[in-house]
């Protein structure tokens, strides 16, 4: 049973950079899955930020693409999120999640495992 | 982006009664090549992450009670709880994974009447 755990600062200054890490246990990052970041705020609900495959291939939400990067560290079995130029609108609970490769070879798949989430507040 | 619209926003149901939540996608999430609807339902309880209940619109996740069922195709989908239990109090979300960016409905809050 794979487990995901987010970690990182709970408070970030406006115009600063939000950095979070998701540690994966009970399974390998190199297991043919996509590793995602999803955030949840009262104002915008659940919002998919982006994802990365163990090869390093990534997909990002166009609404955040200019500010987001996701990277993977296979040696530590973890992946990370970096969001630059943050504002109060980026205050949210940030979740990491796993998405298997689609078994049908077309389209995508659902999120089958989630971390507990970590609250990040953007404020001075 | 695909816009997912859920109704109602909140719902109060008596224990043992049925509950129905609707989800409408702005575009079809059906792939004719494999006859699959790329639609999932999640349950979120306070202080917890979302948990998948249903995927491919009607496939129940392992361990999910059979009182939960999903139906629909194309743009219109339904999550049905046949007999509400106290532990079903939660917010329910639909999500399309037909294309990126993946998008979620705004959620339906289910309470006990």
What would a concise description of this structure say?
The complex is a heterodimer of chains A (124) and B (113). Chain A has 124 residues and is mostly beta strands.
Question: Care to describe what's here?
Answer:
The complex is a heterodimer of chains A (124) and B (113). By secondary structure, chain A is mainly beta. Chain A is 0% helix and 52% strand. Chain A has no helices and eleven strands. In chain A, strands 2, 4, 5, 6, 9, 10 and 11 form a seven-stranded mixed sheet that branches. The relative contact order of chain A is 0.31. The model of chain A has no long low-confidence stretch (mean pLDDT 94). Chain B has strands spanning 4-7, 10-13, 19-25, 30-31, 36-37, 39-44, 51-55, 59-60, 68-73, 76-81, 90-96, 103-104, 108-112. In chain B, 39% of the residues are buried. In chain B, strand 7 and strand 8 (59-60) form a beta hairpin. Chain B is built from no helices and 13 strands. Chain B is mainly beta. In chain B, strands 2, 6, 7, 8, 11, 12 and 13 form a seven-stranded mixed sheet that branches. Chain B has a four-stranded antiparallel sheet with strand order 1-3-10-9, with no helix packed on it. Chain A binds chain B through residues 45-48, 59, 61-63, 95, 97, 99, 104, 106-112, 114-117, and chain B through 31, 33-34, 36, 38, 40, 42, 48-52, 55, 61, 93, 95, 97-107.
């Amino acid at each position: 049973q794979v487990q995901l755990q987010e970690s990182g600062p709970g408070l970030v200054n406006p115009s600063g950079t939000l950095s979070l890490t998701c540690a994966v246990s009970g399974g390998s990052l190199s297991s043919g899955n996509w590793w995602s970041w999803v955030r949840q705020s009262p104002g915008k609900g659940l919002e998919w930020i982006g994802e990365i495959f163990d090869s390093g291939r990534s997909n990002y939400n166009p609404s955040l693409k200019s500010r987001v990067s996701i990277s993977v560290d296979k040696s530590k079995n973890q992946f990370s999120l970096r969001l630059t130029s943050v504002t109060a609108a980026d205050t949210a609970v940030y979740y990491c999640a796993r998405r298997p490769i689609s078994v049908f070879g077309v389209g995508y798949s659902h999120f089958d495992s989630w971390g507990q989430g970590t609250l990040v507040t953007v404020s001075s | 982006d695909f816009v997912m619209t859920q109704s109602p926003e909140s719902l109060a149901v008596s224990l043992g009664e049925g509950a129905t939540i609707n989800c409408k996608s702005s575009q079809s999430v059906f792939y004719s090549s494999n006859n699959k609807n790329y639609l999932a339902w999640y349950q979120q309880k306070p202080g917890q992450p979302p948990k998948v209940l249903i995927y491919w619109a009607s496939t129940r996740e392992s361990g999910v009670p059979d009182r939960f069922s999903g139906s629909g195709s194309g743009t219109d989908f339904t999550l049905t709880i046949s007999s509400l239990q106290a532990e079903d109090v939660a917010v329910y979300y639909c999500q399309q994974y037909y294309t990126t960016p993946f998008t979620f409905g705004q959620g339906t809050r289910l309470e006990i009447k």
